[in-house]
Design the sequence.
């Protein structure tokens, strides 16, 4: 894409964002309707998709454009929107802002960041490996912290439903 006008790169990524979100949405609709009783149905019966369904049910459609800013969870959200049979036009309209931002990020700087990482790996693989390990450690830290918070909330909810007050720990 080197030498392409920025608008062409942006439109390329925008089309990709729309095609992907629509494909996953319709996959979810097909599974929900019982049309796709193949491995796709099994794939959409995953914990991440169940979390996405719960997130959509709790927060509503604003989850759809925000999902474009996540890695991995966006596929679950798009599929979950189909599984819960969100109306197509509603899903599509809520997808527009997320797709516009996603295309700007990847068309504007994300692709350059990937190219920079590849260039760094070609010139200094040790530094690239160190940066990669640091980024992986950061991702693991964020995921573990989010999991711990979710477990703490779940424990507090269980206690609240049992009629007990949670105990603050030092």
Sequence:
């Amino acid at each position: 894409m080197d030498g392409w006008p920025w608008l062409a790169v942006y439109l390329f990524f925008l089309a990709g964002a729309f095609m992907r979100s629509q494909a996953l949405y319709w996959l979810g609709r097909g599974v929900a309707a019982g049309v796709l009783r193949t491995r796709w149905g099994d794939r959409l019966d995953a914990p991440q998709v169940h979390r996405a369904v719960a997130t959509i049910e709790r927060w509503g459609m604003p989850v759809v454009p925000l999902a474009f800013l996540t890695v991995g969870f966006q596929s679950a959200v798009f599929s979950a929107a189909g599984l819960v049979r969100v109306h197509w036009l509603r899903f599509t309209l809520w997808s527009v802002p997320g797709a516009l931002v996603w295309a700007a990020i990847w068309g504007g700087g994300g692709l350059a960041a990937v190219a920079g990482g590849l260039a760094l790996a070609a010139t200094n693989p040790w530094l690239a490996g160190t940066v990669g390990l640091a980024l992986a450690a950061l991702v693991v830290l964020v995921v573990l912290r989010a999991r711990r918070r979710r477990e703490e909330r779940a424990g507090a909810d269980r206690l609240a439903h049992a009629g007990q007050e949670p105990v603050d720990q030092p």
Residues 156 and 167 are 9 Å apart (CA to CA). The chain has a mean pLDDT of 83. The longest helix spans residues 125-161. The helical segments are 6-32, 39-43, 47-59, 63-67, 73-83, 88-123, 125-161.
